[in-house]
């Protein structure tokens, strides 16, 4: 790639014509510096910073450090850094400079000029769902429903048969005994018709299945089976070689408001809703069906305009654009009078003037456009049902446990 610059020390003496530089080596003068290693604190604020080796900011800083013969040791910070709060860490850990997002001016530090271009690309990891969250309550195959019904009928016949062989004197019917086992106790249950008894038993039995297998075992199995389709952490995203970005200010506020993982935070006009806990979101939407769940379904369509897919059409992450379109500016924070300050500042300006940083930004924009094209291919959105084979072992283990409980309860009742 050819770089161009019109900085004074790079311009021809004849006028404004600029030199064409074949590579970036002409930007830098290799010198032996007294400081051979620098520590830099960094945070996740992608696409500018993703990791010590990922992101526009890091690529630029590493390039400059390489040509200045300086090794940078990045030290991760969990929160945004205020210059006034940085100084004690500099003294304690001997940090030479800090890579931080926009900071206020302070006389205690020198800060390089901001150099990042405006890149409105923000990618946020999310769980695999379709637009209406139907995957959470429609993944049962018809075979499973048929199996559930057959097992209920089988239990009814079994109890009727056992009642004929081992008659007992009790005010409780076979249905009432089954309900007692399922519910944990026998209460004021008085059903007269077979249909009502069967309906009540089916309801209780299905409820138990949903609150045991579905809410625990099944959900873990779904997450395991979809491990290649889910991105739930920064490490997963880095392994997938996806360039990610953090959401803008409204979503940062949302994250701060959502300290309780079992609650969904509402922001602005109550249309922007997010949830940062996988199980809690599903439990709320599938089982509680409260007003938050209903609004959440509506809000997801607004919050997530596109779904990022892999080569097989599987959902990986959701891509959102910052609604405020606020540009992010980054600088390097040096202790006052640091000898490398002017060198870094000068080289950053050279790279920006040459268009190299803009070139990096266009790469991110290109990735975003590719993701949008994939997301618009609705035919690639395929959600397979959870087949009976997936639940076979768990289902029969649970069924065996219920059967054993009923037998023990019956023996204790009859004898």
TrEMBL record:
It comes from the Eukaryota. The chain crosses the membrane at residues 144-166, 194-214, 395-414. The lineage of its organism: Eukaryota, Metazoa, Ecdysozoa, Arthropoda, Hexapoda. It is a multi-pass membrane protein. InterPro entries: Insect_Ionotropic_Sensory_Rcpt (IPR052192). It is found in: Cell membrane. Keywords: Cell membrane, Glycoprotein, Membrane, Receptor, Transmembrane, Transmembrane helix. One of its GO terms (cellular component) is plasma membrane. This is Ionotropic receptor.
